[in-house]
Amino acid sequence: MLRKTIAVIEDDQSIQDILRITLKAANFEVIQALSGKQAQELLLTNKVDLIILDLGLPDIDGGDLLLQLRKVTTIPVLVLTARTEINDKLALFNKGVDDYITKPFEEAELLARVMAVMKRTYNITGYGRGTYQSGALVINLEQQIVFKDGNQLHLTKNEYGLLSSLFQNPQVVMDYSTLIRNVWGVQILATQNETLRVTTANLRRKLGTFNGEQYIGTDIGVGYRWKFETKIIE
């Protein structure tokens, strides 16, 4: 499956940078425009799967641009707006917006809304090939990124290595020495046992729980195991 392309139409360069980094980390292609005129040129020459549109553009009101877009395309549009009045929000839906998010926004919420629109429109997750689901987690081996409930988790290299070793062997107890070799590539050492314990504790904290249970179980004196089923989704 080809990666989906998102057009970001926003005149604030700092917000552009945040959106570009966030969306690329989630395996999307990103093209950018700083004005309505640039956006129109961009959309004529590029195949776009979703538009993120700021209302406060320097050369045209974003709402007016939305109306123009709806006359020629059904590409889903997610609006960025500082307007919080209910009448303003209702007006957006009347103009054909698919979703909106108010400024200032959290990157995690924006990404979750993008994923939801993508899933409704294209019946895909947008996470990319080599993607697995386990509990509330979505894990992309190719990109080495992990999402929980649509929000990207920030794992260290060793935490990701431990996660990768465990979730690919669900319900199997992996002994301490095997995990240490997989993650650190060294023979078993007394100090590595403590390092493994700390890394596991940190990973558990970041993953949280699913249906009230932790993802990683402990077989005391033996090793750790991944407690939930894993299935490939892309």
UniProtKB/TrEMBL annotation:
**Which key words tag this protein in UniProt?**
DNA-binding, Phosphoprotein, Transcription, Transcription regulation, Two-component regulatory system
Cited InterPro entries: CheY-like_superfamily, OmpR/PhoB-type_DNA-bd, Sig_transdc_resp-reg_receiver, WalR-like, WH-like_DNA-bd_sf
- Which residues fall under the DNA-binding region feature? 129-228
Q: Single GO molecular-function term?
A: phosphorelay response regulator activity
Question: Where would I find the Response regulatory domain in this sequence?
Answer: 5-118
Q: Which GO biological process entries does UniProt record here?
A: regulation of DNA-templated transcription
Q: Where is the signal peptide?
A: none
The chain's coiled-coil residues are: none
Q: Got a GO cellular component term for this one?
A: cytosol
4-aspartylphosphate is found on: 54
The answer to whether keyword Phosphoprotein applies is yes
Residues of the OmpR/PhoB-type domain: 129-228
Task: Specify the domain of life of the species encoding this protein.
Answer: Bacteria
Q: What is this protein called?
A: Response regulator transcription factor
Q: What is the lineage of its organism?
A: Bacteria, Bacillati, Bacillota, Bacilli, Lactobacillales
